[in-house]
Every structure is written in structure tokens, then in C-alpha cells.
Specification:
It is elongated and about 55 Å long. With 213 residues, it is mostly helical. The chain starts with a strand and ends in a 5-residue tail after the last helix. It folds into two domains: 61 residues, Orthogonal Bundle (Arc Repressor Mutant, subunit A); 135 residues, no CATH class. Helix 2 crosses helix 3, helix 4 crosses helix 8 and helix 7 runs antiparallel to helix 8. The chain binds a DNA duplex (21 and 21 nucleotides) through helix 2, helix 3 and helix 6.
DNA sequence: AACGAGGTCAACCGCGCGTCG
DNA sequence: GCGACGCGCGGTTGACCTCGT
């Protein structure tokens, strides 16, 4: 384990790297008794040889009781795509709309699974398609799950959900998917922002507990 | 079975902002 | 007004895992 040094006065050994079960227990017990905040003094008072920053990160990203673990659901994927298209890399802001998910988790998810496809030309069309589905469907959760599950399971983000909404071909030069514009079907009136919000509100009433301002 | 490449994710780092004395 | 401090955010790193050859 790498050892760091405090900058001030008396040198004190600081632990870095992965947290042990014992450290997790100490931090959890301390916060349950005294609450969070004042992380630097918290670390000292709890007897942890960690920086306040490290304690805060460990608590917020891992130990907090309401941290939700496990796979990102289709609905969460849609929200991440939608909110990122709106706000960019504002991970903490995006995370506020996915209860139990941390900004770090969303950031990692985006960078490892989505980013390399984010600039492909079908992405805006996919978002538009989902918006339309959300806007026009009375079974929003099912519609989203169907659309995105097909997309994820069959293509691993490497191509748009062509089987359900459009045709396309793989560009010989770089393998990127190219949509054939003319085969896009005409959907009902393009969704308005209000329609999208209504759809997400619908989702929130179906137990997903997600919402948008 | 062994090895390398690529993916995943917890943790760290640097910076900027707000607050307080 | 200014410096110290605490905190939060986004970017990056590196250890570990998985998968293909």
C-alpha cells in the first residue's frame, strides 16, 4: 500500500488505495452516529488514516445506504442519453435525476460504453425516436424497454435499433452505421419538450421514481 | 494453458467556488 | 479585500477482470 504524507507540521501516514472492510465499518459507524460533513475533521475524529476527500468519496460512491448497485436499466440509459444531450458532462446534475446512482458511476458508464458512439449520426435520431415513443405511447415503460433493449442486446451500441425504426448500412471505410434518411418513417407529430416531460412523469408514476425538472 | 488487448470501475488529482474569520 | 479552508465536480489513473487467440 502506497503511503502519503500530510503537508502540514507533523508528518502523518495516510493510507491510499482500496478501502478495507475495517475502514468501511469505521466510516459507516462514525457517520451513523455523527452525520456527514466536515470531512477532514471527520477522518481524524473517526481515527481513519485517510484524507477527508477520500472519506467523502468512499461514502458517497459506495457506502451510502441509498446507493443503487447493479446494471443500468433501459429507462436509466434513456435518461442518461437524454440528459447528457441536454447538459453535456454535468455528471452530478445528471445523477440527481437517477436516484441511487452516483455521478462517478454515470461518468464511468458513459465513458466506457457510450462515448465512442455518442457522436455517431444516428444518436440524435435515436433520441428523437425515443422522444416520439415517449410522447405517443400509453405504455411508455414497455416501449422504452423494447426500443432500448433491442438496441443494447443486439448491437451493443454499435448500431442504431434498425429493426424497429429504420434501415441503414455499415460504412465500409470505418464500419460506422449510416442511416438511410429516406426510409425513416413518419412518426406522429414530433414530440415537444412538454411531451417528453409528460412521458418521463408517466415513467415516474410507474415506479421508476425518476423525474426531470 | 498462457498471454495480450481491451473493458470496467474504484479511487485519486487538480481546479474552482463558496464561506468564514 | 484577502487568505485559509472545506467541499464538490470533472478528468484521469491504475488494478483487476474478461475475452479472444
Amino acid at each position: 500500500m502506497e503511503i502519503g504524507k500530510q503537508q502540514s507540521g507533523v508528518e502523518e501516514e495516510l493510507r491510499r488505495g482500496p478501502w478495507t472492510v475495517e475502514e468501511d465499518l469505521i466510516l459507516t459507524n462514525y457517520i451513523s452516529k455523527h452525520g456527514e460533513g466536515r470531512w477532514n475533521s471527520l477522518a481524524k475524529c473517526a481515527g481513519l488514516k485517510r484524507t477527508g476527500k477520500s472519506c467523502r468519496l468512499r461514502w458517497l460512491n459506495y457506502l451510502r445506504p441509498d446507493v443503487r448497485r447493479g446494471n443500468i436499466t433501459a429507462e436509466e440509459q434513456f435518461l442518461i442519453l437524454e440528459l447528457h444531450s441536454r447538459w453535456g458532462n454535468r455528471w452530478s446534475k445528471i445523477a440527481q435525476h437517477l436516484p441511487g446512482r452516483t455521478d462517478n458511476e454515470i461518468k464511468n458508464y458513459w465513458r466506457t460504453r457510450v462515448q465512442k458512439h455518442a457522436n455517431q449520426q444516428w444518436m440524435p435520431r435515436l433520441l428523437e425516436r425515443i422522444r416520439t415513443v415517449v410522447d405517443s405511447s400509453n405504455t411508455i415503460s414497455n416501449a422504452l424497454n423494447t426500443t432500448l433493449a433491442t438496441w443494447n442486446d443486439n448491437s451493443k451500441f454499435s448500431s442504431p435499433p434498425v429493426t424497429s425504426c429504420c434501415n441503414g448500412y455499415s460504412d465500409e471505410r470505418d464500419g460506422a452505421w449510416v442511416l438511410e434518411e429516406e426510409v425513416w418513417p413518419e412518426f406522429p407529430t414530433p414530440s415537444s419538450e412538454a411531451g417528453l416531460l409528460a412521458g418521463l412523469w408517466e415513467l415516474s408514476t410507474m415506479g421508476s421514481n425518476m423525474y426531470v425538472e
